[in-house]
Amino acid sequence: MQFTNQKNDNLLIGIDLGTSRTAVMTNKGFKEIIRSVVGYPKDVIGLKLVGKNQVFGEEALKHHSALTLYHPLEDGIIREASQSDYNAAYELLKHVVEQARQGYTGEVCGVIGVPARASVINKELLLKLAKDILAVAVVVSEPFMVGYYLDKLSNSVIIDIGAGTIDICGMKGTIPSSEDQVTLLKAGDYIDERFESVILQQYPDVQVTRNFLRRIKEEHSFVGEAENPVVVTMRSDGKPVEVDVTDELRMVCESIIPDLIEHLEAIIRGFDPEDQQEALSNIYLAGGGSQIRGIDRFITEQLQAYGDVRVTCVEQSDFIGSAGALKMATEVPPDLWNQVGFLS
């Protein structure tokens, strides 16, 4: 496969389709992150309030009490619970592409990232949606896109910690096989669920929502020793109270580590023995979970028995997946896209 810079008048788009957030970039300079949520007015008053039949992202979350909200991506893949979820996934993808068009009227070709071990059925479902929205679409493993952007295509490991999944991928100089990748379901949403449960057990009188606790996690999450106490303002019987959640937040953030380490070790063992040390020195953390304070050091310590280990948190973690997708879309001719993913 020969990679060249493609001169293409089509709009090329890279999409990192996430459970919590969807990131998109284009070859025309557009760049945006949107919350992966779609809202529909509950009644005529809700319609009057928002002024439209459907609302996306932060706007939907802002008016949540007036809307029926759908989070159509569960564990990083399209929910199949109902026709409503399917329709919401379609509308979300359509909205993302329309935003990226910025008035462009020609054909749009897109590379879409999904969890490393997403099922064939779900990939086909996503491509079915994309056929009506994109002229050409290919579905590619999210950690592979990160490795592609970093030019870490050999003897490296990419760990993409998202809301719905943690994806671990061993890069061996070829398109990763199923044995080189693993998807774990204990990720950001799992932390949120446990955080809510622990807080309600410890402080039964406080009034909290999972979205409120998610914002606390996103601002203060850490593993290992806390740099400072995490004290937040909550409500008890409608009155503000100060609550120290340091221990609870540390516990739930560290709860994803054992499974991560177990499967990371298995991925490392999958490299040829002479390549394992180099792979251990090239472990990269991406996704929103890579922003958990101290997680690079914590993982390094867990792997100390393996010798020299270097774990690096990537820069611009929110966009790196979509940037890798766009880079691939720009460099690889569309007629070769079927060699790197599922093609529509």
Topology summary:
Elements: E1 11-17, E2 21-26, E3 31-35, E4 38-41, H1 44-50, E5 55-56, H2 57-62, E6 67-70, E7 73-74, E8 77-78, H3 83-101, E9 108-114, H4 120-131, E10 136-141, H5 142-150, E11 154-161, E12 166-172, E13 181-184, H6 188-202, E14 206-207, H7 210-220, E15 231-236, E16 239-244, H8 246-254, H9 257-269, H10 273-280, E17 283-286, H11 295-302, E18 311-313, H12 320-331, E19 342-343
Parallel strand pairs: 1-9, 9-10, 11-17, 17-18
Antiparallel strand pairs: 1-2, 2-3, 4-5, 4-6, 7-8, 10-19, 11-12, 12-13, 14-15, 15-16
Describe the overall structure:
The protein has 344 residues and is α+β, with helices and mostly antiparallel strands. The protein has three domains: 11-146 and 319-343, Nucleotidyltransferase, domain 5 (2-Layer Sandwich), CATH 3.30.420; 147-186 and 256-313, Nucleotidyltransferase, domain 5; 188-254, Nucleotidyltransferase, domain 5. Helix content is 38%, strand content 25%. The protein is built from twelve helices and 19 strands. The strands form five sheets. It has a six-stranded mixed sheet, with helices on both faces. Strand 12 and strand 13 form a beta hairpin. The chain is flat, with a radius of gyration of 21 Å. The two termini are 20 Å apart.
